[in-house]
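Example (one chain per record):
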Amino acid sequence: MGKLKDRTVVIGLGSPIMCDDAVGLKVSEAIESLRLPGIDTRQEAVGGLDIIPMVSGYRFAVIVDAIQTGSYEPGTVMIFDPESFDCTVHDVPAHDVNLATAIKMGRQMDNSTMPEIIKFIAVEVRDIRTVSEDMTPEAEAAVDPAKNAVLHVISGFRDPERNR
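Predicted structure:
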């Protein structure tokens, strides 16, 4: 545990040119604009094992991304723990690794450098296939609530009972 910086990283995942897939990037940018002490932000177009070095060394991590389940209205903001995705963890080739599997692998490789707590903020979106720099109105409207969800999670890192 001595290797971890007492800092939090907020990583927005997505593509700025794939319509609603940019929502994670926009949320991370919104957090960055607040210039909060102890908070680092990143906007990345990666997935799988590439997430491990991005969270490595941080005490806490929040990963924000678009999700398309079809089970929720577009614009719905959800907070998940990595354990919420245990059913999606599989032995697959490295290029097919999802985030949950990558986090599990990171913990198995060197748990001492992985964050104590990782949370996922997911925004249900309508369109991640259309090449466009504009998001749908539902995704655009979800940026502020998702930013607030990130702020809620960050405040809970210092008070674990509050974040359950």
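Caption: The chain has a mean pLDDT of 88.
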